[in-house]
Amino acid sequence: MSGFFSKERITAAPGYNRWLVPPAALAVHLSIGMAYGFSVFWLPLSKALGITEPLVCGEDISFWMRAITTSCDWKVSDLGWMYTLFFVFLGSSAAVFGHWLEHAGPRKAGAVAALCWGGGLLISAIGVYTHQLWLMWLGSGVIGGIGLGLGYISPVSTLIKWFPDRRGMATGMAIMGFGGGAMIGAPLANTLMNYFATPVSIGVWETFATMGVLYFIAMMIGSLGYRVPANGWKPEGWNPPANNGKAMITSRHVHVNEAHKTPQFWLLWSVLCLNVSAGIGVIGMASPMLQEVFGGLLIGEGIKLVDLGPDQKLQVAAIGAGFAGLLSFFNILGRIGWASCSDFLGRKLTYIIFFALGFVLYILSPWAGSIGSVALFAGLFCIILTMYGGGFSTIPAYLADIFGTQHVGAIHGRLLTAWATAGVLGPVTVNYLRDYQLDHGVPADHAYNVIMYVLAALLLIGLVCNLLVRPVAEKHYMTSAELEAEKRISHEKSLSAASQEGAHKSSAFLTTVVWVAVGIPISYGIWNTLQKAFILFH
Asked: CA separation (Å) from 164 to 103, 223, 251, 373, 470?
């Protein structure tokens, strides 16, 4: 079994179609991307015992007691710790296991990710069934979070090596799946909960168990579909120009244990952290922001949100949900769109656009709100979210340009600690500033203005960090002997060794089938999202 999952076993022979690899990566990323959609479970779980209304815990029940009590329902804030744990363990596991992944190969890492993510959901199902919150924190939060980290970085270096001519597009295709996972998983979860719900059950534990099995199967199929190119392989008809044609793209390689000693690593860490901090702050407040800024204008009434009736507020809330869905869709478009564009623009220029254009759009957003233009306001944030998603998908290619491809997966794993940091910095900044202004008498429809200016300032700092990125100093690169030794440790086969095992031409029919297999759920998710978003402009 160990040999079946080994890196030597998955080295592709000549004639293998590299376009079979992205669907495998998408199968994994679409599965773990459901982490973004876990909020769909919060309200049902908050009445797991009461079914129709929550059974509120007494004031004497502490936070830790609520983790083990079976006599009252959980608070949404307690359940939300699963979401926090997701991204803490995603970043930390990617950083810790990234180097192992480079040696073990993507198939083994993907299989472990499938066990963790699918198994974590099954443990969470037991937690709901026995009403033990700590089991959900452990199952989905900790174990599932480790699965997120391994699943997220498992295809990165593989895709970059298969597409040296289009690194950005390759990583964008996979990481697009992570952004799109919730588009598929959230409506699926709603459907399953409604199907399994009974007068004595909210249907969540059954949903967790079903989705755990489905995601395990999908991720295992994806992991088994991973192949790595032989050492020395290059796309047919493609030859890298001398010095790669650009000073910012190296043909050398930096060891993962050396990368963090360079200023480039920390500059790119800051670039990712600041770009994500600004974007994640918007995502977290998208729905309430639109409702509070425009209020009754969203339904043709010229009054503030607080003055609307209950039925009117429900209409406005539905529009806010549509806005959040629309932002999710543009987040996904940005992941594949901007990453692909970076192959032509260059990674540094792409991030300059992210920060400079983002700065202007954040500054303009309060003005769009003040003139009452819902379409302009929504349009500004849709563009902002494309750059938020693009920041995630472009950074692996940026790292490959700067540090080489040998350890790019491991280096990317360590850089993802910036994501974990941004997951705290962005929402805390936004929530604190909003509450501070409301406490000091600022009207709700004006409380976001200062927030936008602060987020714009974060982007300016990110712009400076990006402008400071330069090629790595010679002393940090591996020598030829060190590189060869590393390739032996990583069990890389040469092109000649792979050829001896027999060339074969991959079937065009098989390639079509696997793309259709991942395209169907993606189309389902996009259709559901656009249906909900349509109400924003209806």
From this structure: 20, 21, 11, 44, 21
Report d(CA 443, CA 207) in Å as an integer. Answer: 41
The answer to whether 1-233+507-538 and 245-492 have equal CATH topology is yes
Residues in CB range of 536: below 8 A, 6 or more apart: 319, 322, 323, 326, 374, 378
**Domain segments of the chain as ranges:** 1-233+507-538, 245-492
Which spans in 346-373 are helix H?
347-370
pLDDT in tens, 169-194: 998 988 888 888 888 888 899 889 98
Question: Domain 1-233+507-538 adopts which CATH fold?
Answer: Growth Hormone; Chain: A; (1.20.1250)
Contacts of 210 (CB under 8 A, 6+ apart): 192, 196
Distance (Å, whole) CA 78 – CA 141: 12
Mean pLDDT of 515-521: 93
Give 414-439 pLDDT, tens digit per residue: 999 998 888 778 877 877 787 788 78
**Res 151: pLDDT:** 94
Q: Which CATH class is domain 245-492?
A: mainly alpha
